[in-house]
Please model this.
Amino acid sequence: MASFKQKRWNFLAAVALLLALVLGISGISQLNFSTEERTDKLQLSSAPRHQVLRADRTELDGWTSLRSHPPEQESLLLDASDADKALYRVQVGIYSTNTYDLDLSVPSFEARGYLWMSWGEALQQYLEQNNLGLEDRIILANELISDADPGLHPIGDAKRMPDGSYYQRFSYIGRFYSDRASFRHFPFITVSLPIVLEADDVDGVFEYTNLRFVPDVENSGVGLFSGIIGWLKRSWSIAEYRHTYATNFALGGNQVAYSTVVFDIAFGTSSWSAFWRLILPLLVVMAMVLLVFKLEPDQQDARAGIPITVLLTLVFLQQTYRDELPQLPFLTFLDQVYVIAYVVTLLAFVLVIWIGRRYSELKQLPEGHDHDVMAKRLHTMDEIWPLTVVAFSSVSVALCWFTLPPGS
Model:
């Protein structure tokens, strides 16, 4: 009779826990919200572009330094025709000499280098009429506030070239915002460090149809000190985009668009370094959960203490790596692995309690058939626990990895 009552209360407790879980998930789902889709857009133009990236790696993980897919051939031809009709054309080259102080929690980085521009007579007349330098109308759009003086710094005056064009070189230094990283794959991530050049259209004359940038693909590049210690340089790219703002700035008409040049260096983490630094400690901790039922049944206190110790260690390890990342609206791959570890640890603790009670009942049973059956059942559960955990964890981790969106 007492056993029947105990089973009934256990059943009611399980139902209550399931109901609380359903209500919790329902409540969180109602509090959650989707992101606003009305945002700016970047579309590759017909201008020459450059990207150094192995094709097999692009197919494998979906990562590319480019911000959009190339448009259809018809759109490319139309864009090229519009570029030929643009009143102002500026050739832009960028050479990064130093890249350092990558901060994933913002995310941002510091960089310095050189930038040069070449333009025609029409733009030179505009600058002279308004007593301006090119640095007064062309800005680094993703630059953040830093100790360095913002903007482009001219190196000498603009000079006339033999072909009739004007040329000027600039230096830049500062902290820049990084807009793309594959945080979902953390700790195996790739992060883009872009330098974004765009017109500061004060007079309303530098829209996409009037001013076009042409990347200097041949002479742009990265220097000797453009690497970051602890990161692997993966690729660099330079390309022109049509940057369409999600507004017309209350001037009427269609959404405003400008020509934008994005010079990008992509860095990735070392997979082996990430494994030894973040994955291996987790595996060692979870090995303790695997061996919890290898302790003798009469060592119930030691059995129950292991999952509690593992749980506290998991919280500490997760907090350590989360401090490296910004506040993300999704779970990274490593977050999902830790969720699996939490579930396994909780199951281990529940089974420790349940099996401990069964062993207490076993001691009260007289020798005989029922005693032998229960002893064999409990021994079997002790034996199959490590294999069950390894199989469940391996399948779960594989599903987490293969369901990650490519390139995100």
Summary: The first strand starts at residue 41 and ends at 44. DSSP finds eight helices and 13 strands in the chain. The chain has a mean pLDDT of 84.
